[in-house]
Amino acid sequence: MKLTGNRADKYCAAPPQASLGALLFGPDRGLVTQRSKQICAKFVPDLNDAFSVTVLTADDLSSDPARLSDEMAAMSLLGDARLIRLRLDHEKQGAAIGKLIAQFDADPARCAAKLVIEAGDMTPRSAVRKAFEAAANFAALPCYQASGRVLENLIKDQLAAIGEHGIAINNEALSHWAPLLEGDRVLAINEIEKLALYKGYGAQPETRITLEDINKLAAGGQAGSIDEIIQSAFNGQRQLCDDAFSRAMSGKLHPAVILRSVQRHLTRLHEALCAMDHGKSASEAMRSLRPPVFSMQQSNFERQLRLWSRPALSRILDESLTAERRLKTAGSPDIALTGRLLGAIATIAARR
Questions:
Q1: Per-residue pLDDT tens for 161-196?
Q2: pTM of this prediction?
Q3: Which of 307, 316, 312 is CA-nearest to residue 282?
Q4: Digit-coded pLDDT (tens) for 75-100
Q5: DSSP conformation class of 45
Q6: Portions of the chain given CATH number 1.20.272.10
Q7: Rounded to whole angstroms, how far apart are CA atoms 150 and 341?
Q8: Residue 193 has what pLDDT?
Q9: Strands (DSSP E) along the chain, which ranges?
Q10: CATH second-level architecture of 145-221?
Q11: How high is the pLDDT of residue 234?
């Protein structure tokens, strides 16, 4: 069955006991991840329990096509609930997965485990998507990017629920900020949380976010300087990166905003490289990203796809997460930590 809107939200909050699993797919990968975690937590009490949770990838099924069927039919030794989490980066086994879903849907008693699949955007022709949408005991939840009025309402609702008094936002600030948050629901919520922290979590009545607040802290509020920092770092242009970072710090741009932008760029490069590994050209991989790469940045982005490998990006992402944890420690040298990470990125890129 296909669930959208309020029906999808209700399923995530309380999946029916008879449900055998769900497919989360769509261009908003942040929402896919968020909903997957929410549903999985309802299916099993401990997502870190290796006896209850089996994590598979699309490549696992390519090397062992019978693996998913065996896992779904296998009974728990202790009689506990079992969960299979499948990260579907490609659909080489899509037809087989679709056939398997139809078989278990027709005979639910054979299914001994719940199944949750996380995927990217899928066309209506996708065998996996069609199987979930046609099933009575499995759910398909499309995860589309929030934009326009939907995103503005999300911002206002999230802010209004914060703290004792809630936080208001000026119309000018709202209309300027909402387009900067399009593309990833989780990123949007994180940015709302960050700005709420800056405004004291609404501890004082009539707290209001202004356009000046957005320009100081919001991701993309200083888009020009952030883009210059990111592009020069990942191109291996150390001096340009250092100069751009210094100007940003002089302009009072918060280092955490830059760090988040680095992480987002890392994720987008990694996603494009995955698409290229599965047969797409660099230009096709860029066009598949949501939001798409801006036309003025495409030549830089394509160059970076040649410079960087997935393992190298993964190592830098680990370093960025370490830096983020340290930034959250009171009294941490946030400018030095962020500058050191940017310098490392530029140095690695220059050597490649």
A1: 887 788 999 888 888 788 777 766 777 787 888 788
A2: 0.56
A3: 307
A4: 876 667 899 999 998 899 999 999 99
A5: S
A6: 222-352
A7: 35
A8: 83
A9: 21-25, 53-57, 83-88, 114-119, 138-142, 168-169, 208-209
A10: Orthogonal Bundle (1.10)
A11: 94
Taking residues 267-284, report their average pLDDT.
88
Asked if residues 82 and 45 have their Cβ atoms less than 8 Å apart, the reply is no
> In sequence order, what DSSP letters do the residues of 229-293 get, joined into one string?
HHHHHHHT-HHHHHHHHHHHHHTT--HHHHHHHHHHHHHHHHHHHHHHHTT--HHHHHHHSSSPP
Residue where the block lists tokens 């220059």: 350
List C-alpha distances in Å: 256 to 114, 134, 272: 38, 44, 24
Core vs surface per residue 269-288: b (16+ CB within 10 A) or e: bbbbbebbeeebebeebbee
Considering only CA atoms, which of 60, 137, 126 is closest in space to residue 104? 137
Q: Indicate if the pLDDT at residue 119 is higher than 90.
A: yes
Taking CA atoms, 223 is separated from 43, 202, 255, in Å, by 41, 27, 14
Q: Is 329 helix (H, G, I), strand (E, B) or coil?
A: coil
Length of the chain, please?
A: 352
CATH architecture of 5-142: 3-Layer(aba) Sandwich (3.40)
Average of per-residue pLDDT across 133-143? 96
Q: Please state which CATH number belongs to domain 222-352.
A: 1.20.272.10
3-state secondary structure labels for all residues of 174-210: HHHHHHHHCCCHHHHHHHHHHHHHHCHHHCCCCCEEC
Over residues 305-318, the pLDDT tens digits come to 988 998 899 899 88
The contacts of residue 326 (CB under 8 Å, 6+ apart) are: 332, 337
Can you read off the two tokens belonging to residue 167? 């936080």
Least confident of 112-121, 125-134, 202-211, 289-298: 289-298
% of the chain beyond a pLDDT of 90: 40
| Residue reference for tokens 């759910």 | 139
- Name every residue whose Cβ is closer than 8 Å to that of residue 78 and which is 6 or more positions away in sequence: 51
Cα–Cα dist 195/166, whole Å: 13
Closest CA to 304 of 269, 331, 344: 269
